[in-house]
Amino acid sequence: MLAVPQAYRPRFQLTAASLLLSLTLPFLPPWSPLVRASQIWEVVGQPVLELAAPPNGGIAKLEQWNTRIEEIAAELSPNQALTVTVVPILGPASSTPRPTPFPATSLPSSSPAVPLPLPRPEVIRATIQINGRTLLEITPEEALSQGAGSVAELANRWADSLRRNLNRPEVRRRLAAVAGMPHQISYDRQAYQRGIEASSDRGLFLSNGARTSGQVVFWEIPSNQAYQYTGILASTVRSLHGQSASPEATSTTTPAAPATIYLLNRHRQFIPYARAASPSP
After folding, report:
1. Residue 78 to residues 161, 171, 199, 267: CA-CA distances in angstroms?
2. Residue 142: count of CB within 10 angstroms of its CB
């Protein structure tokens, strides 16, 4: 992952959450979507929310948000707009001492007691929802750490940013492609990490029926070698349309731990998975 750009470098004071994040970030793998999350929350590689400080809960909270946004996107149609709303949760106002209207001793003993006005309820928590499904919750502690004057202020600020950024065409396209796909898979005893966008189908994807995580594995052959695989490629196309594969296709050997393999998503698009770098000895 690229280094944090100058414009995105943290400007917040050191807190327990930011200390945890600063200690953890150097050890995150380069493919992690959270490497730049000390100030910018990214979804499918695109910035969607600027944070004044790491969220309460640190990396675990960001992982939760990423998982939730993909779960929500998987339930929507690809062309469905993402509607962001704030749902306030009201409660009694904070217990701040209130001055009495006048000294009690100044009232004649025969005067009736004057009841103090009841405190108005205030927003004590809020949820940000996408198409009626909860994405995240904002608490007073979160509002304080983010430098907001209230829960309502932070909720509206974040909702405006999400409303604007989640509906950008590139974000919607990528979300629709990867939603519901596993972040990591294992193939040929190697770990593979999911990409953030569907690959173009140039008719060069090949499979012998091998599976991982319950899905058929594909790989792409170089265009200058396509003539060697003409019959197998045609058989792969037939299998994609529910027809039986030819014997030559099922006898093809998948390359040992290729650098990139592909799985089909629910829209029959090829999602790339890159082989993770082996740990240094």
Report:
1. 21, 11, 17, 9
2. 22
* Average pLDDT over every residue of 107-129: 74
pTM of the model: 0.67
| CB contact set of 279 (below 8 Å; sequence gap of 6+) | none
Given a contact cutoff of 8 angstroms between Cβ atoms, the answer to whether 63 and 183 are in contact is no
Residue 151 in tokens: 């829960």
Of 208, 196, 202, 198, nearest to 225 by C-alpha is: 202
Q: What gap in Å lies between CA 279 and CA 189, rounded to an integer?
A: 14
Strands 133-138 and 122-130: antiparallel
Q: What is the mean pLDDT of the chain?
A: 77
Structure tokens that stand for 1 in this block = 């992952």
pLDDT given for residue 230 in this prediction: 53
Q: Any idea of the CA torsion for 91, 95, 96, 97, to the nearest 10 degrees?
A: 140
Least confident interval from 7-21, 47-61, 184-198, 205-219: 7-21
Q: Is 257 left (phi over 0), alpha (psi -120 to 50) or beta?
A: left
Predicted pLDDT of residue 8: 36
Instruction: In whole angstroms, give the CA distance from residue 148 to residue 232.
Output: 60
